[in-house]
């Protein structure tokens, strides 16, 4: 590494130094949730047992992520990235003007998305479980909330992907690669 914080590669090219941001649990959680949610969404009306297994697995992942949000590594902890609504709104205003501050972990808009997705997916899991109990079997409002939460989650996912693409362009870094490798530019 040189004095500018860069690392030299063969042939004299220098690359910016990187730092580990996303620990293995966060990355495995993220991509497992992506795959399981897609599977559960696509099998919802057609393949009951695998849909339920995916739902219970998602519920377990969400529970583990919430625990990890309190005891996990620096950038995984909620105290590291969850802010008030004013901070998130200010960040979005700055981002639209391409002058938002770069964050090593989640930015304030990303923090809102993390919480929104955790809550929406938790609602899906809770109502999915409720539909399997004697008390709520065949109760219309439970199924309606389950379907609404699933569709609302699709909207959140689209906004999340859009935000990732936007922030990647704004800050000149590949955030998808960062969620695969765990590393971001220092």
At CATH level 2, the architecture is: Up-down Bundle
CATH domain class name: Mainly Alpha
Structural class: mainly alpha
The largest sheet has its strands arranged as 1-2
Describe the structure.
- This protein is mainly α.
- The chain has one domain (23-181): Fumarate Reductase Cytochrome B subunit, CATH 1.20.950.
- Helices cover 66% and strands 6% of the residues.
- It contains seven helices and four strands; from the N terminus they run E-E-E-H-H-H-H-H-H-H-E.
- The chain has helices spanning 24-43, 48-71, 78-81, 85-96, 108-131, 140-171, 175-181, and strands spanning 6-8, 14-16, 18-20, 183-185.
- It has a two-stranded antiparallel ribbon. A two-stranded antiparallel ribbon has the order 3-4.
- A hairpin with a 5-residue loop joins strand 1 (6-8) and strand 2.
- The longest helix is centred in the last third of the chain and has 32 residues, at 140-171.
- The two termini are 12 Å apart.
How is this fold's topology laid out?
Blueprint: E1 6-8, E2 14-16, E3 18-20, H1 24-43, H2 48-71, H3 78-81, H4 85-96, H5 108-131, H6 140-171, H7 175-181, E4 183-185
Helix pairs in contact: 1-2, 2-5, 4-5, 5-6
How do you describe this structure in short?
The protein is mostly helical and 186 residues long.
Which key terms come to mind for this protein?
two-stranded antiparallel sheet, 66% helix, disordered N terminus, Fumarate Reductase Cytochrome B subunit, mainly alpha
